[in-house]
Design goal:
- The chain has 110 residues and is α/β, with parallel strands linked by helices.
- It is 45% helix and 13% strand.
- The protein contains four helices and three strands.
- The protein has a three-stranded parallel sheet with strand order 1-2-3, with helices on both faces.
- Helix 3 links the parallel strand 1 and strand 2.
- Helix 2 runs parallel beside helix 3.
- The protein starts with a helix and ends with a helix.
- The model has no long low-confidence stretch (mean pLDDT 82).
């Protein structure tokens, strides 16, 4: 609700399979996922989103230390928001991801 109050349209899913189905149907501008959603971990979702749409920004919401990810195959370009975090932090990260994504598109098109 906080993100919708900021003017964002949000689509939510309770597990990775549903998230991927919704991703394919809606082609969102940004994906925010928890490291441990229902089903396989959020990194699996990130890998699949990156495979389907390499330019879609991904934000991984996690309580794990970043060093925990160093041994895993983490796709490049994923931003992290460490728990606990305020919604202001998450909103700023989303805004940054969308801005960087737009700049990247302009660079490719220009």
């Amino acid at each position: 609700r906080v993100l919708e109050g900021q003017g964002y349209e949000c689509i939510t899913a309770r597990d990775n399979a549903t998230a991927l189905d919704l991703f394919r149907m809606h082609d969102p501008d940004c994906v925010v996922t928890d490291i441990y959603p229902g089903g396989p971990n959020g990194l699996e979702l990130c890998r699949e989103v990156t495979r389907l749409s390499p330019s879609t920004p991904l934000i991984l919401f996690t309580g794990c230390l970043l060093t925990d990810f160093e041994t895993q195959d983490v796709p490049d370009g994923i931003d992290y928001v460490m728990k606990p975090a305020t919604m202001d932090v998450l909103v700023r990260r989303i805004e940054r991801a969308l801005l960087l994504s737009t700049i990247g598109e302009d660079t490719v098109e220009g």
